[in-house]
From TrEMBL:
Top-level division of the source organism's lineage: Bacteria
Origin organism lineage: Bacteria, Pseudomonadati, Pseudomonadota, Alphaproteobacteria, Hyphomicrobiales
Active site: D36 (proton acceptor), D174 (proton donor)
Name listed for the protein in its UniProt record: Ribulose-phosphate 3-epimerase
CDD domains, per database record: RPE (cd00429)
Residues that, per the record, bind a divalent metal cation: H34, D36, H67, D174
Sequence positions that bind substrate: S9, H67, G143, F144, G145, G146, D174, G175, G176, G196, S197
Pathway annotation: Carbohydrate degradation
Gene3D superfamilies: Aldolase class I
Gene name as annotated: rpe
Signal peptide: none
Organism this protein belongs to: Methylovirgula ligni
Length: 226
């Protein structure tokens, strides 16, 4: 089984104290930081750009997982790589040549991911399996934190697991992940679990407990706990 990781989405952090929130959530047991980049065009919300990624890179050694919800994406890949992203994930709808875009990410020395919206078929990754390090299954429509988990993503995770079996590819799930849904998605094959609201709720003193609850549910589903 591929290693389990819990990735807080800073979309739900306290943006007036973003560096502090990131350091505290890592100290509380999170594995990787998930950064949601939104352009108000590909998705109906605007978040931040490469300067924020660079600022967060400056306050933590944790891996940075950058989820680009922007179109066109190609002109911005290099800026996010230079800003300090470790993983760059793009949507197939965000450019004309997915294979070329993934190659560009890897040429910059970064891990490359493809994100599948709830209505995007798994077949979108079929011919780029050799070019990716990660598949991100969206379990909400992208654009906002705090949305309800879409259950059909479980069947999609199952299909992604079958399609990527035997390859060096992580399976990430993003949207509506809580201590309640974590077991379902881990059981369906996800090993990177993004959670925004469920990690940051209650403020810094609650981070460790929130992360532990998500991790425990996932570990139970993976058969790692009695
Ligand atoms: O990509 C995203 C939204 O487009 C976010 O990563 C995701 O929604 C996390 O927030 P929450 O855990 O609150 O659902
Ligand atoms: Fe995300």
């Amino acid at each position: 089984m591929r290693p389990l990781a819990i990735l807080p989405s800073v979309l739900a952090a306290d943006w007036a104290h973003i560096g502090d929130s990131v350091q505290k959530v890592i100290a509380a047991g999170a594995d990787i930081v998930h950064l949601d980049v939104m352009d108000g065009h590909f998705v109906p919300n605007i978040s931040f750009g490469p300067d924020m990624v660079k600022a967060i890179r400056g306050v933590t050694d944790a891996r940075l997982d950058v989820h680009l919800m922007i179109a066109p994406v190609d002109p911005y890949i290099e800026a996010f790589a230079k800003a300090g992203a470790d993983v760059i994930t793009i949507h197939p709808e965000a450019g004309p040549h997915l294979h070329r875009s993934l190659g560009a990410i890897r040429q910059l020395g970064k891990k490359a991911g493809v994100a599948l919206n709830p209505a995007t078929p798994v077949s979108a990754i079929e011919h780029v399996l050799g070019e990716i390090d990660l598949v991100l299954v969206m379990s909400v429509n992208p654009g906002f934190g705090g949305q309800a988990f879409i259950r059909s993503s479980l069947e999609k995770l199952d299909r992604v697991r079958a399609m990527t079996a035997g390859r060096d590819i992580d399976i990430e799930v993003d949207g509506g992940i809580t201590a309640e849904t974590a077991g379902l998605v881990a059981g369906a094959g996800a090993n990177w679990l993004v959670a925004g609201s469920a990690v940051f709720k209650g403020g810094p003193t609650a981070y460790a407990g929130n992360i532990a609850a998500i991790r425990k549910a996932a570990q139970l589903a993976r058969g790692e706990l009695a």
